[in-house]
Amino acid sequence: MKILFKTVATTTATKTAITNNKKISTAVKFLQDEYPNSWQYCVIRCNNLSLWLVQNIRQANRNPRVLDTTARRIVKMKKFGYILLLTSCLPLSAFSHELSGSAKVIDGDTIEVQGTVVRLLGIDAAETAQRCVTSSKKIVRPGETASNRMESLVKNGVTCSGTEYDAFNRLLANCTTSAGQNVNRILVQEGLAWAFIKYSKQYVAEENAARSSQLGVWQLACEEPWVFREKRWKVAEQKAPNGCPIKGNISNNGHIYHTPWSRHYTVTSIDLSRGERWFCSEKEALDAGWRAPIR
């Protein structure tokens, strides 16, 4: 398959940069979102390989957000008209990114490895502020249980592999323990997380088995975490200034933001005179230099 373009970026250096770039998906999505009226992109598959094309580039001298080298390079090259990111198809695995090492637990489905926040793909654990009820009417926090289990699984190190970053610049990945156990699968198998079928059906069978055995959350009266988050957001949105409910707190631990479903949200106050602020989205908080709380 031969394709002719006005300008073609085909150097080995460019291919290497794109191949090794951990944020290629985020970069392309960024360009599409930032230039909805002048950017078009498509993915062409040939022989089970992937080819990224960015075309119809018209705008110039826009200041890109800091995403990665590839994104900046693409934006700077707008003046050339048409750019072919890759002239030869690269396998999908070429875009995978792997992180290994010690992990910091953020919550039951999110960790930090090598300074990168990793969101476990295909699962969704209860939020740390979420309360559920047992058959004996006892209030429990399954989000804390999931976080504790996560800590026990990754305490000796973890390896996470993924091909995509979400809107919050988190690597969406499957993670394995130092013993080779799949962390995502274990959390769903033990009833500590739901299969997040909105994004992946990889762990549906594990969820069905856990539900049948009444393990973890399946023996509780408990909302799905995505339902819980939506409800919490709507309530907090009504009370927050300008409808922006995320709290940007400054403490000895740094600039930390708290979402309405965070455990310490209600006890966190915002003092604008100290530089603390409210955010309308997690992305806005991240772009401003705030981070999510780590256990």
How would you portray this structure in words?
The protein has eight helices and 17 strands. With 295 residues, it is of the alpha+beta class. It has a six-stranded mixed β-sheet with strand order 5-12-13-8-7-6. Strand 6 (103-107) and strand 7 (110-113) form a beta hairpin. 34% of the residues are buried.
Q: What is the strand arrangement across the widest sheet?
A: 5-12-13-8-7-6
Number of helices: 8
Mean pLDDT, to the nearest integer, reads: 76
Total number of beta strands: 17
How much is the radius of gyration in Å? 21 Å
Structural class call reads alpha+beta
The unreliable regions are 1-24, 34-94
Our measurement of the CA-to-CA distance between the termini, rounded to an integer number of angstroms, reads 51 Å
Largest β sheet strand count, sense and barrel closure: 6 strands, mixed
Q: Which series of helices and strands comes N to C?
A: EHHEEHEEEEEEEEHEEHEHHEEEH
- In helices, the fraction of residues equals 25-40%
C-alpha geometry: globular
Q: Into which percentage range does the β-strand content fall?
A: 25-35%
